[in-house]
Write a structure and sequence with these properties.
The protein is 34% helix and 24% strand. It has 9 helices and 10 strands. The chain has helices at residues 44-51, 96-106, 111-124, 140-152, 170-185, 197-203, 221-228, 233-240, 256-266; strands at 4-15, 18-29, 33-37, 59-65, 71-73, 81-84, 158-162, 189-194, 206-211, 214-219. Strands 6-7-8-3-9-10 form a 6-stranded mixed beta sheet, with helices on both faces. The chain is globular.
């Protein structure tokens, strides 16, 4: 196990009478690629929002550990986090680079440094030739790649992804997975929610199965199959989630995540003329 990066300690999160997460305790280590797997309403996105400080726990704590051993509430170290919500929330009148530059400036990154990093990553995602194009009219894959570049522009320690390959074509999804692997090689941590068990098995060092607000399993793909005496990760997942999935209405309307994250990181002040462009 690597040095601790993030810790979730006895966390429960409720929305009115709905308990989205119940008594969750987890540690995330530097350099790990972790998949959060569960059905709709399981609590995956709620956990991601707690990890990036958008939500405060109803009970418990979420903390960040610096390399020097200093422990701080996660909402005080957002500059160490990169977030890609399922809806990318790009400003459609801006070019891909202008979206990325705006975010990097908010985090105090000089333009030349942000540009050099962006171009290097854009080449890996095959989007370099589109950096100067307005994002209006971008395909889903192009928007997702731009959002990834934006989230990585300030070189965060950890990247939080919500359904990063959902709706992408095979080639684009493969490029995203390759970028995740490159981040692992660079010592970065990636935590992302997904429904794609095959992708998790291919990419992740560790899989956390969330079901009805509780952690049902936590381990490597191989260990989960051994734990359930199954030959496939899909069968292991089924064995660990035999009780019916709950049906919960989303507490927020579509677009809440990207609006709130933008408000936190930009003081709720988008570029001139773009107030209505945040939602896709």
């Amino acid at each position: 196990m690597g040095a601790p990066l993030l810790s979730v300690r006895g966390v429960s999160k409720s929305f009115g009478e709905v308990q989205a997460l119940r008594e969750v305790t987890l540690d995330f280590d530097r350099g790990d690629i972790v998949g959060l797997v569960g059905s709709n309403g399981a609590g995956k996105t709620t956990l991601l929002r707690l990890l990036c400080g958008l939500y405060s726990p109803t009970i418990g704590d979420v903390v960040h550990h610096s390399k020097g051993g200093v422990e701080q509430p996660v909402h005080t170290v957002r500059n160490n986090l990169g977030v890609v919500p399922e809806a990318t929330g790009l400003y459609q009148r801006l070019t891909a680079w202008e979206n990325i530059r705006y975010h990097s400036r908010i985090n105090g990154i000089p333009d030349d440094k942000a540009w050099n990093r962006t171009v290097r990553l854009a080449r890996a995602l095959d989007i370099e030739d589109s950096l100067q194009r307005p994002t209006r009219g971008f395909s889903r894959g192009m928007r997702q790649k731009t959002a990834l570049l934006r989230a990585l522009s300030h070189d965060p320690e950890v990247l939080l992804l919500d359904e990063p390959t959902a709706g992408l074509d095979v080639t684009s999804a493969r490029m995203v997975r390759q970028l995740v692997d490159k981040l692992r090689q660079d010592g970065r941590s990636v935590i992302y929610s997904t429904h794609n068990l095959a992708e998790c098995q291919q990419v992740c060092d560790r899989i956390i199965i969330i079901h009805n607000g509780t952690i049902r399993a936590d381990g490597s793909p191989q260990s989960l199959m051994e734990q359930t005496n199954q030959d496939s990760l899909e069968e292991a997942y089924v064995q660990l989630t035999l009780d019916a999935s709950r049906e919960i209405e989303t507490p927020e309307s579509v677009g809440w995540f990207q609006r709130t994250w933008a408000g936190i990181t930009t003081s709720a002040t988008p570029p001139s003329g773009e107030e209505g462009e945040l939602n896709e």
